[in-house]
Design brief:
alpha+beta, Trna Endonuclease, Chain: A, domain 1, five-stranded mixed β-sheet, 29% helix
Length: 120
């Protein structure tokens, strides 16, 4: 699999993972300007969660979540703000990361990091 295919597979795995935990997914690959949010889901009726999915085929360069630096966090926060304006939402939010390690198309590990960062 190439990196695009690995990313798509990871997002699909992450959606299933979240749904199994009781999250209600409402948007996939939401784009605004230069930003994109992989998954937007309700954890409950009052908590909107913006999820960045990072999938790696091996862990030679650190954990997948290490790829979400300050610049990416800022872009995610800005994009989340646009989404919130579009749905007229002004309540509790959270930014999560789902890190997926794969080898030969098999999932080795899924880590769900809740409250992974705060909007800047």
């Amino acid at each position: 699999m190439n990196s695009t295919e690995i990313g798509r597979r990871g997002e699909s795995i992450a959606v299933e993972f979240l749904e199994n935990k009781g999250y209600r997914v409402v948007a996939l690959n939401f784009r605004a300007g230069r930003g994109e949010i992989d998954i937007i889901a309700w954890a409950d009726e009052r908590l909107l969660v913006f999820v960045e999915v990072k999938t790696r085929a091996g862990d030679g360069f650190g954990g997948p979540e290490d790829a979400v630096g300050l610049k990416k966090q800022d872009l995610l926060a800005r994009t989340a703000g646009i989404y919130m304006e579009q749905i007229d939402y002004d309540w509790e939010i959270r930014f999560d990361i789902i890190a997926i390690l794969m080898k030969n198309e098999q999932v080795l590990e899924i880590r769900h990091i809740e409250d992974a960062f705060f909007p800047t």
